[in-house]
Amino acid sequence: MARPSYLARLLDVIDVAVTHERAPLPMSEIAAAAGVPVSTASRLLGLLGEHGFLVQLPDAGYAAGPRLLRVAMGAIERLRDTDRLKAAVEALSDQAGESASAGLLVGDEIVLVARKEPTHSLRAVARVGDIIAPHTSAMGKAILSRLPAQRRAAVLRAAVGEDADATLDRLEEELATATADGYAVDEGTFTVGLRCRAAPLLDGDGHAVGGLSIAGPAARFTPEHAESCLPALRAQVAALSPTPRSTA
User: Fold this and answer.
1) What sign does the CA torsion over 29, 35, 39, 45 have?
2) Greatest Cα-to-Cα distance within the chain, rounded to the nearest angstrom
3) What pLDDT does residue 124 have?
4) Is residue 209 within 8 Å of 103, Cβ to Cβ?
């Protein structure tokens, strides 16, 4: 296996420092999670600090710096209808009493861009910025169901590499059902004990650009409850998706 380049290590350190579930982390833990020597992590963290991409906190942890936040906010502002997505997610969560999410297809990955958790102590936990698996999540399968064949294959390759063709074969029937129904289903595949329903957000050509989902613990988010949430899910998707272009 080729040794990671210095730039690749730099990117890994940024990723760990900002997105790790236990962030902010001290240098030693960043080094371990990024798979780099402590000496290398020290140099990289120093470089990132000098250029404003990370800051060292008083407790010796590291967090996103002003320059990285400026880059992130600029990227978010350029995403599709973020304010409307947030409003849709909040409305869905309030109506369903469960977690609601919005994801967008950025490159070949599905990125969570909006999230609303319910007040229940038992809930599905995810964070804005998470990468959503296209083949094991309801949102991912809803998006795959409305992608052209070449684009669908590219998204799966980004997630599973050489197993993309075999994965697509396993999903063929499920994706066909999702296309016909207008929504996708997940029953504990993404997370054990989690039930989810998701529908794709479409562009003017009828191709998926993202998705909305509602999810909750299966014991509470029963099949009947999930079914009752579908009209609200469909309504939000319809409001966010433009009218299909005429083929005449």
Assistant:
1) negative
2) 64
3) 57
4) no
Going from the C-alpha of 185 to that of each of 100, 104, 117, 195, 248, the distances in angstroms are 14, 18, 19, 8, 33
Find how far residue 107's CA is from the centre of its chain. Answer: 12
Q: What is the mean pLDDT of residues 132-157?
A: 94
Q: Are strands 184-187 and 194-202 parallel, antiparallel or unpaired?
A: antiparallel
Contacts of 106 (CB under 8 A, 6+ apart): 79
- The tokens for 110 are 């599905």
Among the listed residues 51, 54, 42, the one whose alpha carbon sits nearest the alpha carbon of residue 17? 54
Measured CA to CA, the distance from residue 24 to residue 81 in angstroms comes to: 30
**86 CB neighbour count, 10 Å cutoff:** 16
Q: What is the pLDDT of residues 180-202, one digit of tens each?
A: 999 999 998 777 788 999 999 99
Q: Is 217 helix (H, G, I), strand (E, B) or coil?
A: strand
DSSP-derived letter for residue 221 is: S
- For residue 100, the tally of other CB atoms under 10 A from its CB is 29
DSSP letter at 129? T
Give the Cα separation of 36 and 4 in Å (integer): 10
Q: Please tell me the distance from the alpha carbon of residue 110 to that of residue 137, in angstroms, as a whole number.
A: 11
Say if residue 235 is exposed, middle or buried (CB neighbours under 10 Å; 0-12, 13-18, 19+).
Answer: middle
CA nearest to 107, candidates 131, 125, 127: 131
Pairing of β 131-132 and β 184-187: unpaired
